[in-house]
Protein backbone atom coordinates (compact mmCIF):
# COMPACT_ATOMS: atom_id res chain seq x y z
CA UNK A 1 0.00 0.00 0.00
CA UNK A 2 1.37 3.38 -0.99
CA UNK A 3 1.50 6.25 1.44
CA UNK A 4 -0.58 9.32 0.61
CA UNK A 5 2.57 11.44 0.23
CA UNK A 6 4.00 8.95 -2.28
CA UNK A 7 0.74 8.98 -4.26
CA UNK A 8 0.72 12.79 -4.34
CA UNK A 9 4.32 12.75 -5.55
CA UNK A 10 3.42 10.31 -8.33
CA UNK A 11 0.44 12.45 -9.37
CA UNK A 12 2.63 15.57 -9.50
CA UNK A 13 5.16 13.70 -11.67
CA UNK A 14 2.40 12.65 -14.06
CA UNK A 15 0.93 16.16 -14.16
CA UNK A 16 4.38 17.58 -14.98
CA UNK A 17 4.83 15.02 -17.76
CA UNK A 18 1.41 15.86 -19.21
CA UNK A 19 2.06 19.60 -19.05
CA UNK A 20 5.53 19.46 -20.65
CA UNK A 21 4.74 17.01 -23.44
CA UNK A 22 3.31 17.71 -26.90
CA UNK A 23 1.81 14.24 -27.26
CA UNK A 24 1.08 11.46 -24.81
CA UNK A 25 0.16 7.84 -25.53
CA UNK A 26 -1.67 5.49 -23.16
CA UNK A 27 -0.23 1.98 -23.48
CA UNK A 28 -1.47 -1.37 -22.18
CA UNK A 29 1.62 -3.47 -21.54
CA UNK A 30 -0.08 -6.59 -20.13
CA UNK A 31 2.14 -9.64 -20.54
CA UNK A 32 5.38 -7.75 -21.17
CA UNK A 33 8.44 -9.31 -19.57
CA UNK A 34 11.36 -7.40 -18.08
CA UNK A 35 13.73 -7.91 -21.02
CA UNK A 36 11.16 -6.57 -23.51
CA UNK A 37 10.45 -3.59 -21.27
CA UNK A 38 14.17 -2.85 -21.01
CA UNK A 39 14.45 -2.91 -24.81
CA UNK A 40 11.36 -0.67 -25.11
CA UNK A 41 12.68 1.88 -22.62
CA UNK A 42 16.09 1.99 -24.37
CA UNK A 43 14.54 2.49 -27.81
CA UNK A 44 12.19 5.18 -26.52
CA UNK A 45 14.99 7.00 -24.68
CA UNK A 46 17.12 7.00 -27.86
CA UNK A 47 14.28 8.79 -29.68
CA UNK A 48 13.67 11.35 -26.91
CA UNK A 49 10.50 9.69 -25.60
CA UNK A 50 9.87 9.19 -21.88
CA UNK A 51 7.93 6.24 -20.46
CA UNK A 52 6.18 5.91 -17.10
CA UNK A 53 4.17 3.08 -15.62
CA UNK A 54 1.29 4.29 -13.49
CA UNK A 55 -1.69 3.16 -11.50
CA UNK A 56 -4.89 3.90 -13.37
CA UNK A 57 -6.51 5.74 -10.44
CA UNK A 58 -3.50 8.04 -10.04
CA UNK A 59 -3.35 8.61 -13.80
CA UNK A 60 -7.04 9.54 -13.90
CA UNK A 61 -6.49 12.08 -11.11
CA UNK A 62 -3.50 13.55 -12.95
CA UNK A 63 -5.55 13.80 -16.17
CA UNK A 64 -8.42 15.79 -14.66
CA UNK A 65 -8.97 18.98 -16.70
CA UNK A 66 -5.67 18.54 -18.58
CA UNK A 67 -7.19 18.11 -22.04
CA UNK A 68 -10.48 18.52 -23.89
CA UNK A 69 -12.85 15.61 -24.35
CA UNK A 70 -13.24 12.34 -22.52
CA UNK A 71 -10.45 10.08 -21.27
CA UNK A 72 -10.29 6.88 -23.38
CA UNK A 73 -10.96 3.54 -21.69
CA UNK A 74 -7.81 2.51 -19.83
CA UNK A 75 -7.82 -1.27 -19.51
CA UNK A 76 -5.09 -3.60 -18.26
CA UNK A 77 -1.75 -2.38 -16.95
CA UNK A 78 -1.28 1.20 -18.12
CA UNK A 79 1.82 3.20 -18.91
CA UNK A 80 2.27 6.53 -20.65
CA UNK A 81 4.80 7.43 -23.33
CA UNK A 82 5.33 11.13 -23.92
CA UNK A 83 7.66 13.53 -25.67
CA UNK A 84 8.14 17.13 -26.71
CA UNK A 85 7.76 16.05 -30.36
CA UNK A 86 4.14 15.68 -31.55
CA UNK A 87 4.60 12.42 -33.39
CA UNK A 88 7.61 10.75 -31.73
CA UNK A 89 5.85 9.00 -28.86
CA UNK A 90 3.01 7.40 -30.89
CA UNK A 91 5.39 6.49 -33.73
CA UNK A 92 7.94 4.80 -31.47
CA UNK A 93 5.29 2.84 -29.55
CA UNK A 94 3.77 1.78 -32.88
CA UNK A 95 7.18 0.71 -34.24
CA UNK A 96 7.87 -1.36 -31.12
CA UNK A 97 4.39 -2.85 -31.37
CA UNK A 98 5.10 -3.93 -34.97
CA UNK A 99 8.35 -5.70 -34.07
CA UNK A 100 7.06 -7.26 -30.82
CA UNK A 101 3.62 -8.61 -31.70
CA UNK A 102 1.01 -8.89 -28.97
CA UNK A 103 3.00 -7.22 -26.20
CA UNK A 104 1.80 -3.61 -26.35
CA UNK A 105 -1.55 -2.11 -27.17
CA UNK A 106 -2.15 1.59 -27.77
CA UNK A 107 -5.26 2.66 -25.83
CA UNK A 108 -5.41 6.30 -26.90
CA UNK A 109 -3.69 9.47 -25.84
CA UNK A 110 -3.53 13.23 -25.80
CA UNK A 111 -2.73 15.08 -29.02
CA UNK A 112 -2.85 18.86 -29.45
CA UNK A 113 -4.62 19.29 -26.12
CA UNK A 114 -7.40 16.79 -26.82
CA UNK A 115 -8.03 13.23 -25.71
CA UNK A 116 -8.02 10.94 -28.72
CA UNK A 117 -8.94 7.29 -29.11
CA UNK A 118 -6.93 4.32 -30.29
CA UNK A 119 -7.80 4.76 -33.99
CA UNK A 120 -6.71 8.40 -34.13
CA UNK A 121 -3.49 7.61 -32.24
CA UNK A 122 -2.72 4.83 -34.75
CA UNK A 123 -3.23 7.31 -37.62
CA UNK A 124 -0.83 9.75 -35.98
CA UNK A 125 1.68 6.96 -35.40
CA UNK A 126 1.82 6.06 -39.09
CA UNK A 127 2.67 9.59 -40.27
CA UNK A 128 6.17 9.45 -41.78
CA UNK A 129 8.98 11.41 -40.14
CA UNK A 130 9.89 14.91 -41.30
CA UNK A 131 13.00 13.67 -43.11
CA UNK A 132 11.00 11.07 -45.07
CA UNK A 133 8.40 13.66 -46.09
CA UNK A 134 11.10 16.12 -47.21
CA UNK A 135 12.82 13.43 -49.29
CA UNK A 136 9.48 12.59 -50.96
CA UNK A 137 8.93 16.25 -51.82
CA UNK A 138 12.46 16.52 -53.21
CA UNK A 139 11.88 13.42 -55.37
CA UNK A 140 8.59 14.84 -56.68
CA UNK A 141 10.28 18.12 -57.59
CA UNK A 142 13.27 16.38 -59.17
CA UNK A 143 11.27 14.11 -61.49
CA UNK A 144 9.76 16.76 -63.84
CA UNK A 145 13.03 18.68 -64.03
CA UNK A 146 14.89 15.48 -64.88
CA UNK A 147 12.38 14.66 -67.65
CA UNK A 148 12.72 18.17 -69.09
CA UNK A 149 16.52 17.82 -69.13
CA UNK A 150 16.28 14.48 -70.98
CA UNK A 151 13.85 15.96 -73.54
CA UNK A 152 16.10 18.99 -74.16
CA UNK A 153 19.08 16.66 -74.54
CA UNK A 154 17.23 14.54 -77.10
CA UNK A 155 16.21 17.65 -79.09
CA UNK A 156 19.84 18.81 -79.06
CA UNK A 157 20.96 15.41 -80.42
CA UNK A 158 18.44 15.60 -83.28
CA UNK A 159 19.44 19.16 -84.25
CA UNK A 160 23.17 18.34 -84.26
From TrEMBL:
Q: Which SUPFAM superfamilies match?
A: Ribosomal protein L10-like
Q: Does the keyword Secreted apply?
A: no
Gene Ontology cellular component? ribonucleoprotein complex; ribosome
InterPro entries named among the record's database cross-references:
Ribosomal_uL10, Ribosomal_uL10-like_sf, Ribosomal_uL10_bac, Ribosomal_uL10_bac_type
Q: Name one GO biological process term.
A: translation
Q: Which UniProt keywords are given for this protein, alphabetically ordered?
A: Ribonucleoprotein, Ribosomal protein, RNA-binding, rRNA-binding
Q: Is Phosphoprotein included in the keywords of this UniProt record?
A: no
Q: Name one GO molecular function term.
A: large ribosomal subunit rRNA binding
Q: Which PANTHER family match?
A: 39S RIBOSOMAL PROTEIN L10, MITOCHONDRIAL
Q: How does it assemble?
A: Part of the ribosomal stalk of the 50S ribosomal subunit. The N-terminus interacts with L11 and the large rRNA to form the base of the stalk. The C-terminus forms an elongated spine to which L12 dimers bind in a sequential fashion forming a multimeric L10(L12)X complex.
| HAMAP family attached to this UniProt entry | Ribosomal_uL10
**What's the stated role of this polypeptide?**
Forms part of the ribosomal stalk, playing a central role in the interaction of the ribosome with GTP-bound translation factors.
Q: Which family does it belong to?
A: Belongs to the universal ribosomal protein uL10 family.
What's this protein's name?
Large ribosomal subunit protein uL10
Q: Which organism is it from?
A: Candidatus Nomurabacteria bacterium CG22_combo_CG10-13_8_21_14_all_32_8
